Amino acid sequence: MARILIVDDEKSIRAALRDILEYEGYEVEEAKDGEEGLNMILKNSYDVALCDIRMPKLEGLEVLLKAGEAGRSTQFIMVSAFGNVENAVEATKRGAYDFITKPPDLNRLLVSVRNAIEKSKLVAETVDLKKRIFKINEIVGESAPIKRVKDTIDRVAPTEARVLITGANGSGKEMVAKQIHEKSSRANKPLIEVNCAAIPSELIESELFGYEKGAFTGAVKQRIGKFEQADGGTLFLDEIGDMSLSAQAKVLRALQESKITRVGGDKEIKINVRVIAATNKDLKREIAEGGFREDLYHRLNVIPIHVPPLSERREDIVLLADKFLYDISQEYGGIPKTILPDAMQHLKSLPWTGNVRELRNVIERLVIMCGDEIMLDDVRLYASFGN
């Protein structure tokens, strides 16, 4: 049942609105002034607040503003006897869902309340989804090496510094990039990922910078590149060590000037992008061998983060395995299975050349193929696949 708070200093107005809304099946509470209304909003959860604009102690627009600053998702419908354009515009600018004049038209009021409740549900679902995504991208582990990684993420995420993430395949470099983005001020903007190793060298420039219609055979219409798609957000260049030298030169220019030019075009386009790069290669050796630009390396390597292989953080295997057991059971709609102690000890002793990615694959295989209790013989049998 939707909860509605009526904030108005006129008792008769509160009573009339309450009768209407309770008749429609809503749960209704009242506040006699703005100060009481704000306190109730901060302490409780309401889908909608019907809030008068002019009240003693705290005016309605101040209640709206302070509730927003506190992160409350309550949708405000401002109600006022002074139905001028200035009040409506100001209320909307401050985040009000709607503005209704007194005495309110009954049908208009009920439609507005229903729509505001729907928006409140959508906002709550979005917040919940973001929390679940953040949980999925959570870096699991309490070992000293992984604690250093998490500490660096917490320090660098709120800044605009570029980050170069290094580590073996499957160690979790992409997870680190996602955590940096999600903990940054750009979290509400896009995180655009580019796997430089998966794109042919002749296509990487058009993929990154886009192209104009007619730039080459097959370019039948203009295309926006990854840099423009990430404007205001974060661009994650995964496996940047595999990028061609010509593309590296253009990326360097984009980082230096915050501008790009589409393939086949001459117009400079301003961009506001934070770049995070990752590689499993030794870029210093690549520089020495002429495969990577030293100037680009120094542009990217403002904050280096090395993600340790699983072999250097074996004490985290228990935590990771438990997380994967839970996640996989959620995906398959079952109850999480249990790995017996001797089986877990054997998991910890394996080489894990594929790192965290390989561990997850093995846990998923065990969940599918084994009973409720995963035993040592199960691990010996199924964890040997692909090792």
UniProtKB/TrEMBL annotation:
A Gene Ontology molecular function term for this protein is: ATP binding
- Describe the location of the Response regulatory domain by residue ranges: 3-117
Instruction: Specify the domain of life of the species encoding this protein.
Output: Bacteria
Keywords on this record?
A: ATP-binding, Nucleotide-binding, Phosphoprotein
Q: Which residues carry this modification: 4-aspartylphosphate?
A: 52
Keyword Protein biosynthesis in record: no
Q: Where is the Sigma-54 factor interaction domain positioned along the sequence?
A: 139-368
Q: Which GO terms describe its biological process?
A: phosphorelay signal transduction system; regulation of DNA-templated transcription
Which InterPro entries did the record assign? AAA+_ATPase (IPR003593), AAA_lid_NorR (IPR058031), CheY-like_superfamily (IPR011006), P-loop_NTPase (IPR027417), Sig_transdc_resp-reg_receiver (IPR001789), Sigma_54_int (IPR002078), Sigma_54_int_dom_ATP-bd_2 (IPR025943)
Q: Which PANTHER family match?
A: TRANSCRIPTIONAL REGULATOR (NTRC FAMILY) (PTHR32071:SF17), TRANSCRIPTIONAL REGULATORY PROTEIN (PTHR32071)
- Protein's recorded name: Sigma-54-dependent Fis family transcriptional regulator
Q: Which organism is it from?
A: Runella rosea
Taxonomic classification:
Bacteria, Pseudomonadati, Bacteroidota, Cytophagia, Cytophagales
